[in-house]
Design goal:
This protein is mostly beta strands and 339 residues long. The chain is built from no helices and 29 strands. The chain starts with 7 loop residues before the first strand and ends with a strand.
Length: 339
């Protein structure tokens, strides 16, 4: 029977390589043989049947089938290892790619002419010249003629035809994910900013009171803006009570960094403001002016606000969590740059 998980169509779309189980009751037992099926002639042909093939991983542009082959003897007496090989149908010959154990990551260029071998010594293997070139982990262009990777040096564009490379200055931002994507022969860097506080970018409305905020006059949806040391931002937080006999705690919070200086405001960062025995309809706006002090750069530095409403209408309500309402959200998530 065939193994659907190990089937693979050729680059030109005219052939399919697959493994089929074969039984040898005298020696090997159940083992896999390598076949290919020609979609035009509708004929299948056996290529190898030594019982060592464990997985087909792709085709080259020269009609060569790439596969992993186990180095363990069929009698299971030798240690288990696996290496990459490829079989040239035209030459009826098998080639090995040394140093490609099964735990390596492996990808074929879109045109099937080369392979990226990701491991201890990441490199590009050329199926035509049978040569390897050291390279950093990255992605192929659609044409397979270029290869891009992000390194400590910056963005590296490697020309797979002549071996030249171009370095573009780029400093990766800490604590975020990034991905390289090729489109119409251009490479783009997609940046995924880290998640911030739960309920971020929303105001708060409870049955005890409401909280709204602005950052430089904008509602609390200010994400991923840049600030540099010396820049000043103005934060407004408005708190309104809906109940009588209420106490309210207001705290401006810097949850992940300690980079802001409070230039003006009713409290320091992470220090609460307390209002006792307010009545229904009471409302107040608190204003802070903050600025990055330069102590931390190339980081996201969110600014959050936390407000706690407590109902003291009856004495038994004091210190009872059932009669408290908490509001917590992110006002802004600036990225601190050094320029």
């Amino acid at each position: 029977m065939t193994d659907e998980k190990t089937g693979c169509i050729s680059v030109d779309g005219k052939k399919v390589a697959f493994l089929a189980d074969v039984w040898d009751g005298n020696n090997k037992g159940l083992y896999k043989s390598l076949y290919y099926y020609d979609l035009e002639s509708k004929k299948a042909q056996k290529l190898l049947s030594d019982g060592r093939i464990v997985e087909i991983v792709g085709w080259t542009s020269n009609n060569e089938i790439i596969f992993y082959e186990s180095m363990r003897d069929v009698d299971f007496k030798s240690p288990a290892t696996a290496e990459l090989f490829y079989f040239n149908i035209t030459e009826n010959r098998k080639y090995s790619i040394e140093g490609t154990e099964l735990d390596w990551s492996f990808s074929i260029s879109p045109d099937g002419s080369k392979a990226l071998l990701i491991g201890v010594n990441t490199r590009i293997y050329d199926f035509t010249t049978k040569s390897t070139t050291p390279i950093d982990i990255g992605v192929w262009s659609d044409s397979s003629k270029k290869y891009a990777s992000l390194t400590d040096e910056g963005l590296i564009i490697f020309n797979t035809e002549d071996g030249s490379k171009k370095t573009i200055d780029y400093i990766a931002r800490e604590n975020h994910m990034q991905r390289l994507v090729w489109y119409k022969n251009k490479v783009y860097i997609i940046v995924f900013a880290p998640s911030v506080s739960m309920n971020s970018y929303k105001g708060g409305d409870t049955d005890y009171g409401t909280v709204t905020a602005t950052f430089n006059g904008k509602n609390p949806t200010v994400r991923y803006l840049d600030m540099k040391p010396g820049d000043v931002a103005e934060i407004h937080v408005t708190v309104t009570s809906k109940i009588n006999s209420s106490s309210i705690f207001i705290t401006l919070i810097e949850p992940h960094t300690k980079t802001y200086a409070i230039l003006e405001g009713p409290s320091k960062m992470d220090q609460y403001i307390y209002n006792n025995s307010v009545t229904a309809g009471w409302s107040k706006t608190y204003i802070w002016k903050v600025s990055p002090d330069g102590g931390e750069i190339d980081v996201y530095a969110p600014i959050d606000v936390q407000v706690e409403f407590s109902n003291h209408e009856e004495s038994y309500m004091i210190n009872d969590g059932e009669f408290r309402r908490n509001v917590y959200f992110t006002i802004a998530n600036p990225y601190i740059v050094n320029k």
